[in-house]
Amino acid sequence: MPSVTAIQANHRHLYHYQPYGDDWTGYLETTLRDRSLFLPSPSTFNDPWDCRPWFDLDVLNDANVREQYIEWFMQQAIVPRPKDAEEMRNNPQLLREMVTQCSMGLIDKIDADYRVFCLTPSDDNLLMWSHYARNHKGVCLQFDARAEPIVGAFQVSYQQQLPLSAILELENDGMFNALLTKSDVWEYEEEFRVIAKDHGVASPGVPIAINNRVRIADNALVRIIVGCECVGADEIVDMVRRHQPSVSVRQANRHPHRYGLGFTTVYDGL
Prior knowledge:
With about 270 residues, the chain is an alpha/beta fold. Helix content is about 30%, strand content about 25%.
């Protein structure tokens, strides 16, 4: 697993944008009441390349690499048969198809095993408010970057080309790195991710998600920022007072004379 970026050295807080209203009202109330976050499966993300690794087929043009792959497949076989290895040697297309099937299988495994919570260092990003907070009708959650599990967030890497993995990397960081690499068209998000594993496949040192929820420290959630088009500020303040009165609430306001937001405190917290 890659090392965690020391985010607390650069960012005192990290933010998460989400809708409000309908079912999402319940998500926010559960976060406040149970001190837990909802971490979706990667298949729900809006980027169809996100968390979907692909194995590099060009490496199979190298005879030595082909042999390594054949040996790897033989090791995975329940009952390895010498004739299977010969068939892969004599039929390069078969080997390529097997590697492609592994790519598809890995995508499914990542979606089944991992849960991801997305964060960013800014609370006034107009695109983020539009894309993830339902056109400014939602909310932005402010977290203490030193609190669990936010302190364990990893920084996303952005690049122009889809990273191609190798089957032989699976024993190291192949799967995990797929969760942390995106196209550079998303670079404006400056994303960090809390990555958890479903409780059925828990691993040491990785947060555990039960029913897609991960517990957070009592002091992790610092503030709720209400979108400039959200009409639920009073309801949210009431929710905070009932479940977590130490959390403050701010209302975002659209500057009428320029592109940008201002913020007004509507509840200071206790």
